Amino acid sequence: MKRGKLRVLLGAAPGVGKTFTMLEEGHRLRSEGRDVVVAVVETHDRAATAALVDGLEVVPRRVVEHRGVALDDMDLDAVVARAPDVALVDELAHTNAPGSPNEKRWQDVEALLAAGISVISTVNIQHMQSLGDVVREITGTVQRETVPDAVVRAADQIEVVDLSPASLRERLSDGLVYPAARIDAALSNYFRLGNLTALREIALLWLADEVDDALKAYRAEHGIDHRWETRERVLVALTGGPEGETLLRRGARIAARSAGGELAAVHVTTNDGLRERHPGALGKQRTLLEQLGGTYHQVVGDDVPSTLVRFARSVDATQIVIGVSRRSRLAAAMTGPGIGNTVVRESGDIDVHVVTHERAGGGFALPKLGGSLSRGRIVAAFAVSLVLGPLLTWLLSFGNDPDAITVDVLAYQLLVLVVALTGGMWPAVFTAVLSGLSLDYFFVQPLYMVTVQQPWHLVALVMYVISAVLVSFVVDRSARRSRTARRAAAESGLLVGIAGSVLRGDDALQALLDRTREAFGFTGVRIRQGDEVPATSGTFAGEPDATTGLPSGAVLEFAGAPDDPTQRRLLRVVEQQLDAAVEHRRLTRTAVDAERIAAADRVRSAILAAVGHDVRRPIAAASAAVQTLHAADIQLSAADREALLTTADESLRQLAVLLADLLDVSRVQAGVLAVTPLPTALETVVAPALDELELGPDDVDLDLPGDLPPVLADPGLLQRVVVNLLANASRYAPEGTRVRVAASAFGGGVELRVADHGPGIPEDRRGDVFQPFQRLGDTDNDTGLGLGLALARGFTEGMGGTIEVDDTPGGGLTVVVRLPIAGHLGVDVK
Predict the structure, then answer these.
(1) DSSP code at position 45
(2) What is the pLDDT of residues 443-469, one digit of tens each?
(3) Where do the DSSP E strands lie in 15-92?
(4) Taxonomically, which superkingdom (predicted)?
(5) Is 556 helix (H, G, I), strand (E, B) or coil?
(6) Residue 219 to residues 222, 263, 307, 439, 608: CA-CA distances in angstroms?
(7) The model scores a pTM over 0.70
(8) Nearest-angstrom CA–CA distance, 263 and 289
(9) Are 755 and 739 in contact (CB under 8 A)?
(10) Is 764 exposed, middle or buried (0-12, 13-18, 19+ CB in 10 A)?
């Protein structure tokens, strides 16, 4: 069966028009003769949206009874049985009602696609799983409903339904998004102008990255190697020299000239001298790069220009920034055009900026020898011999004096040494023989004839050649050792870069894969454990080109693996690091499980300590009262007897409350709290809580709107939450002030705020305020065990809500409890 196609309408926030656009598209497809049905649409009481449903076939929803609450949701089986061409499925991140075939609506969509039904769906950017932390930091709202990024990225078509923040706030003010009772709370909370602007930017950037990945995949599938300039990507080549800061700042300015410009820097660890000249220079440049918003990369390559250009193409760089060579003109003339000219020649359609700096054109230095003398160096050495040899002979001929034969010999010897240093053994032997013949022909009597009158002359020529061979041997051995040392430095540099990524907080396994792919030039690297892929870097067009088994049982797969024997040893080292990272991830999960057990043990120990310390007082008071009542030798009046009975009764009631709290916190910690969520009006739990604490209008300021929708909560647990919050607020409220209790509906939920004007909670203590056995000050035990807020959080989260603390304007503490509206199970924002 042919799989259906998925089209996702992505929005930055509720109210931008995703559902409206989806329904309009349904009408358009229906007018073209397509079989379109509405599988599920959430109109949120918006008249314009509800009107668009008319004229489209709607598949009836299934109704699920859950703990006395009727919940309706999409009927997956009915839609599959109907088998339309296109199904309209609203709110992709929605959590299905209990008892549904799948937990999440996106799983229902997968089932529809597998059945050959195409789907048009909607989702807001705040529901993307990878953006949960970012959205929480921007809006302060925790998104309980999320959809994996991979589900949306796998869609055949993704469109952004865009609306400017000002226009969206105007729609909200006009009552086109939420009812009038919710407008003020929405405008002052989630729909602030800054929030909407940030969410809009996130949505556009997320889609831009998705388009960028799709473009890379298309180019890889069609074998397109040349660059497509979709955005400016500036790559700065760092050598480790002091000019790096100048290059980074210039690259940042170039990237900033275009919207969406990206900055990256690469350091090629090689064996021809391009390495950091000062120990801390590269580290400082890396810090500066992070401050400029760029990314750092490190690769290993014997040919610096080719490696640099190849990496630039792999990251789709549009511009390369390099520094002017530090070599002098004489050094450049002796060793060739240099890296900069080669990069310019090989860059093709990538623009190259050659930036001057104060270190450009340094003093003369002997050529930096590589690990093994390349063919180019050998050819250059022969060229030096053929050019400088005749030139030296011509210069020496002007002082043709038999007494100057020593100078002639030393001059030719110097030429042989220079050639040996440049090209090694064979050019040196060639130059030694050629210079020996030239010396005999032009400067030894009889002139212009090659004769050996004395046997010692032949011995001298042989020694001349031997000296050249020995010098070239020393040069070659030094080059091999230099190559080994520099190769080791390159490997160390790579491993240091990997370790640095991990130390900066990056995921160890992901950082290892990213650095491995960059360093060795793979197009894709991933770890596979059975059917699971814990981490991947790059892209795989098809089956992997090579695989390696790791001792942990995982398999390392490569795409585009280069066949370079010199890199296999380093790759084996990296494989060991990857295997250690896989094992570390497994041990981390085990440690987390062990920490949970340890935390439970600590709670049990704390409970036992609290019982021994805080429960003793009411037991002692009750015991003393009862013993006095039973004493036969003490005559008690009726008033005394009544006082003792009251003391015993109050002590036993206090003991019952303490033991109930201890039992409740134990259940919360063990995860066995019994919760029965029902549609509950807040006034039905707030009023009994006030009566229980004997708080009246002089103590509490109530603001509970009459049209407040019921919440889905356990009435008994919610009353305990309110009692604990009111008791805590009343305890710390200054004399003469009132505790404020207010509620408002917002975004599919109801927020209950309990505020006081007491001392508040210091910023560094807010992480501990919901921990058991924590009291402000912890100076005495007259105020209970410190379980009130801990129980409030446990009960609230057990009912599917959230609880947070905030500052009260003017000073004090505000505790905010957020619960879902009945009929909107688990929904934070729609």
Answers:
(1) T
(2) 766 777 766 666 666 676 677 677 767
(3) 36-40, 57-58, 62-66, 69-73, 86-89
(4) Bacteria
(5) strand
(6) 5, 22, 21, 63, 66
(7) no
(8) 8
(9) yes
(10) exposed
